Amino acid sequence: MTTAATDPQAAMQAVSYLASEYGTMLALFGIEGETFEWVDGIPVMNEDLTEFRNSDYYGFRDEYGIGTFWMVRNLMLANSLGNLPGGYQANNVAFAQQFSHARLEFVELDPVAGALQRDMDNINVARSQAIVNVLQAPNDAAGTEIWENFLASRDNFDFDGITEYRNNRLNENRARLGMQ
C-alpha cells in the first residue's frame, strides 16, 4: 500500500488510523447506531447486516466496506470484542480453532546468557550452514555425510548442557502452569 503511494506519509497515517482503536471499530463494525449496537459491552452487528454478510460476503463488503481492511486492524482489540468472521469464513475459523492451542510450556526454553547461550548461537549457525550445504550437495550420500558431521559437531558446543538447560526450563514452565 505505501510502497506505491504518491504520498507515503498520508498512506502511513491511513494505516495508523485503521490500526487504532477507533479505526478498528469502524473497519470491523461500521458506525454505531447504523450498523451495530453495543450489547453487554460487545458490538453486535444489526441482524439484517449479519444476514447480508453471511449470504453475500463480497456484496456486503462492497456496499458497506466493513471488513475490507481486516489486515491492518488491531487484532487484540478485535478478538477481545468477539469479532468472528461470518459466512464461509466461519467454517474455516471453527475448523482451525481445534488445532490452535497455546503451548506455553515451550516458551523461552533457550539459554539467554553466558556460555550456554553462545554455544546455542554457534549450534544455530552451524545448523543453518549445514542445511544450505545439504541442499547444495551433489548427491544424497554427500548430503547425509554433511548432516551427520553437523550432528557430531554439536558436542563441541555443549549440546548436552543445552539440552539439560532446556529440559529444566520446560519442567519449570510446566510446573508454573500446573501441568505436572
Folded structure, characterized:
The chain is mainly alpha-helical. The chain folds into two domains: 8-89, no CATH class; 104-176. The chain has nine helices and two strands, in the order ααββααααααα. It has helices spanning 8-19, 21-29, 47-55, 57-64, 75-80, 88-97, 114-136, 140-153, 159-176; strands at residues 36-39, 42-45. Strands 1-2 form a two-stranded antiparallel ribbon. Helix 7 (114-136) packs antiparallel against helix 8. The mean pLDDT is 85.
Tell me the number of strands.
2
> Which structural class should the secondary elements be placed in?
mainly alpha
Q: Helix fraction?
A: 55-70%
Give the strand order, joined by hyphens, for the main sheet.
1-2
Helical segment count: 9
Roughly what fraction of the amino acids lie in strands?
A: under 5%
Features:
single chain; 180 residues; mainly alpha; two-stranded antiparallel sheet; 9 helices; 2 strands; 61% helix; elongated
Question: What topology emerges from the helices and strands here?
Answer:
Blueprint: H1 8-19, H2 21-29, E1 36-39, E2 42-45, H3 47-55, H4 57-64, H5 75-80, H6 88-97, H7 114-136, H8 140-153, H9 159-176
Antiparallel strand pairs: 1-2
Briefly characterize the structure:
This protein has 9 helices and 2 strands; from the N terminus they run ααββααααααα. It has helices at residues 8-19, 21-29, 47-55, 57-64, 75-80, 88-97, 114-136, 140-153, 159-176; strands at 36-39, 42-45. Helix 1 crosses helix 2 (21-29) and helix 3 packs across helix 4.
